[in-house]
Amino acid sequence: NICRSTMAEAILSHLLTERKVREKWKVDSAGHGDWHLGKPPEERTLQVLARHSITDYTHTARLITEEDFFTSDYILCMDDYNLEELEAMKPVESQSVLWKLGDFDLKGARNIFDPYYSNTIEIYEKVYTQCYRCCEAFLDYALKN
């Protein structure tokens, strides 16, 4: 919960502010594993966000909770593995809709690559571009429904 999901959270918050609907939304990110609990976003994530004028973003990695499934209309994840994990965690009574953010990728790339082990900032830029494209399409959908 320090690379892709935080990047998507920052982008989505930024887009909501641009569209002047930020106050109507709660945007957050969480992980299902405790590898980075309590840590800030990966430095390369913050560098790429800053390159795109998103500089007011802060976050502390946390685990998704059962409560999240009852307080969130949508829970978006990054790849098939994360979707499977979330589907297994989701309480039967929850009305949250689970999707991969990539389901909204107009270029059809349904999984968003984890750049954490990459040694180039360019991979983070590619993830940013895909997340931005997907967040815009998701917002177009969500604001209509």
Brief sketch in words of this structure:
By secondary structure, the chain is mainly α.
Q: Would you give an account of this structure?
A:
The protein is mostly helical. 43% of the residues lie in helices and 6% in strands. It has helices at 4-18, 43-51, 68-71, 80-89, 121-144, and strands at 74-77, 97-100. A two-stranded parallel ribbon has the order 1-2. Helix 4 links the parallel strand 1 and strand 2.
What structural keywords apply?
single chain; two-stranded parallel sheet; globular; mainly alpha; acid phosphatase activity; 145 residues
Topology:
Elements (H helix, E strand, L loop, with lengths): L3 H15 L24 H9 L16 H4 L2 E4 L2 H10 L7 E4 L20 H24 L1
Parallel strand pairs: 1-2
Helix pairs in contact: 1-5, 2-5
- Helix percentage range: 40-55%
- Uncertain stretches: none
- Spatial strand sequence of the major β-sheet: 1-2
Distance between the termini: 28 Å
CA-based gyration radius? 14 Å
Following the backbone from N to C, one meets helices and strands in this order, namely HHHEHEH
Report the mean per-residue pLDDT as an integer: 97
- Percent strand equals 5-15%
Subcellular location: Cytoplasm
Protein name: Low molecular weight phosphotyrosine protein phosphatase
Catalytic activity: a phosphate monoester + H2O = an alcohol + phosphate; O-phospho-L-tyrosyl-[protein] + H2O = L-tyrosyl-[protein] + phosphate
Pfam families: LMWPc (PF01451)
